[in-house]
Amino acid sequence: MSHKRDKDKDPVTDPTELPEAHLEGLGASFLGGIEQLRAGRIDQAIKTFRGILAVEPRLPEPRMELARILLDTGRLHEAEAEAKEALRLLEAGGQWIEELSEPIVLGLAHGLLAEVLRQVADSDEVIFGPPERFHALTNEARHHFAKAATLDPENQHASYHAFFMNLEIPDGGMSLAAPPELARDPDPTTD
Fold it and tell me: The whole model's pTM is what?
């Protein structure tokens, strides 16, 4: 895909104004990173995704894959930073991969960030730290799980956590809150 260059636009702030020659080969590298990940070559996949981002840091999909690896390997603070940046890029219209719809990719990004935040909130440093930080993280995770479930109702992970975090999903009627007949009686001594 090529773009006609507008001399009044700044290529640093408007990615549609950059020549795309620097993107050549990044798609193949991205797929190679996915294959490395599937083959269990985690360190090589990290190196591949970081290499892609060194060439073009505004690509959210390699950043999401990197965040997922960091999450899965317990590097939660790095994962949080990468997931937040990927979501920021996507919300600015920076989706690179066209095989998935924008709502699905955004839903995946919100779900990824929500899972990172949920795991950070479950860490000892947060559990045994100030309660305000725990509540802020869980509230932010709830927000992102709800957004993920709204954007992509097929996202089972987000729907699962949205349900167990007792969220109402604002999409015109879908509620993931427990129905009243399943609500627990707060006083277990009564029938």
Answer: 0.73
